[in-house]
């Protein structure tokens, strides 16, 4: 079976920014100028045969944060450039509110990864 965490991390690390799971930066930790986070949203079984799952689609949310608004504005294309070749399908993206506390702009996008379990 595919390790979705490893597939996601490997795709995102090729961007050259620090990559971490969402929520793993400590409140007192200094954030990088730009970084990427990800989290698994859900992973339902899509189909079954003989009471066994035959396929599964995992939804992964990817976030790019940057103090440079130009990086955020190009985030959709940047994320697609590594996620699509890794086998993910884009499910929709949107800007995140500017963080006054950290000075980061943000962009988030959901991707789906299909796995044949047979």
Describe the structure.
The chain has 3 helices and 6 strands. Strands 1, 2, 3, 4, 5 and 6 form a 6-stranded mixed β-sheet that branches. A hairpin with a 2-residue loop joins β3 (45-49) and β4 (52-66). The model has no long low-confidence stretch (mean pLDDT 91). It has helices at residues 4-13, 69-73, 75-83; strands at 19-21, 34-42, 45-49, 52-66, 88-96, 105-116. It has one domain: STM4215-like, CATH 3.30.2000.10. This is DUF3168 domain-containing protein. It comes from Paenibacillus brevis.
Quick structural summary:
The chain is an alpha+beta fold and 118 residues long. The chain has helices at residues 4-13, 69-73, 75-83, and strands at 19-21, 34-42, 45-49, 52-66, 88-96, 105-116. The N and C termini lie close together (10 Å).
């Amino acid at each position: 079976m595919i390790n979705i965490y490893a597939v996601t991390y490997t795709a995102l690390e090729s961007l050259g920014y620090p990559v971490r799971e969402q929520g793993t930066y400590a409140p007192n930790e200094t954030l990088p100028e730009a970084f990427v986070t990800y989290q698994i949203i859900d992973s339902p079984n899509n189909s079954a045969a003989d009471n066994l799952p035959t396929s599964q689609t995992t939804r992964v949310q990817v976030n790019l944060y940057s103090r440079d608004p130009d990086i955020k504005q190009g985030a959709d294309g940047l994320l697609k450039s590594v996620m699509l070749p890794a086998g993910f399908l884009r499910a929709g993206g949107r800007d995140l509110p500017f963080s006054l506390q950290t000075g980061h702009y943000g962009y988030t996008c959901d991707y789906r990864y299909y796995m044949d379990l047979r």
